[in-house]
Amino acid sequence: MRYLCLIILGLCALACSPKRNITNSPDGPVLDLPTLLSQLPTYDADWDWLVAKSRVQVESPQYDGQITIQLRMRRDSLIWIHMSKLSVEAARVQITPDSVSMINRLEKLYVQEDIADLSQRMGVDMDFYVIQAWILGDILHDYDRTAEMTMDSTAYYLEQSDRDIDHRLAVMRSSLLMSEQMISDPRSGEVTMSYDAYELQDGAPRSIATERTVELTDRKGQVYTGELKGLRVRWDEPATTRFRIPPHYERQQL
């Protein structure tokens, strides 16, 4: 489906990031690798629901313009996404620990897939809990002491490969908050996510990067870019997650 990459862009753009309370000098401390690894964020914030909405500026082979993404997520059980453009619903997605379903309103198509089968067929890690961590803006790779570390005046950089997948992480020296992470997989492509303008919003158990950019290059070399500013997130407010496939829609396989 041609809207799948746009939805992925929206998910990346809505990603949150962990709360940190670290005070450093303007350039931050000089840390060695074991110390840096010990101070990377942990993800133990207590939350049940997350609701987010934002506009994302998209550049892609299929569409250049603005889309609106609504995200509603219940911890460890449900991810619900609504995507619209020009105030018209374009797609709706529902992800559970077992399945991925998507409705394409504009083309009257739908997808219903077992998440394990889809992961194997597409050659990507589609585990629900990995997707949840991705949306939250968690560091997606467990870096260890075999990682290569470099630094400049503003950031630490970690690089590590795991099963032919390359991972790269940039952490700001001034706060130890993540500023960028990249994942490159020869089977599916490369995605780079950048994070900026962190805020601890009212009632939030963790801070969020209110400005971010994602660039996705698929295995065919097509490039998709999404840019978001001014993200607002509400926590622990139960939300409706309606998802009904119209009987006249045609089923399609991803």
What features would you describe in this structure?
The protein has 254 residues and is mostly beta strands. It contains four helices and 15 strands. It has helices at 4-13, 33-39, 115-122, 128-136; strands at 49-59, 64-74, 78-85, 88-95, 99-104, 109-114, 148-151, 155-162, 165-172, 178-185, 189-199, 208-218, 223-229, 232-235, 250-251. It has a 15-stranded mixed beta sheet that branches. A hairpin with a 3-residue loop joins strand 7 and strand 8 (155-162). The longest helix has 10 residues, at 4-13. It starts with a helix and ends with a strand.
Quickly describe the structure.
By secondary structure, the protein is mainly beta. The chain has helices at 4-13, 33-39, 115-122, 128-136, and strands spanning 49-59, 64-74, 78-85, 88-95, 99-104, 109-114, 148-151, 155-162, 165-172, 178-185, 189-199, 208-218, 223-229, 232-235, 250-251.
Task: Name the descriptors.
mainly beta, 15-stranded mixed sheet, 254 residues, outer membrane lipoprotein receptor (LolB), chain A, 4 helices, single chain, 13% helix
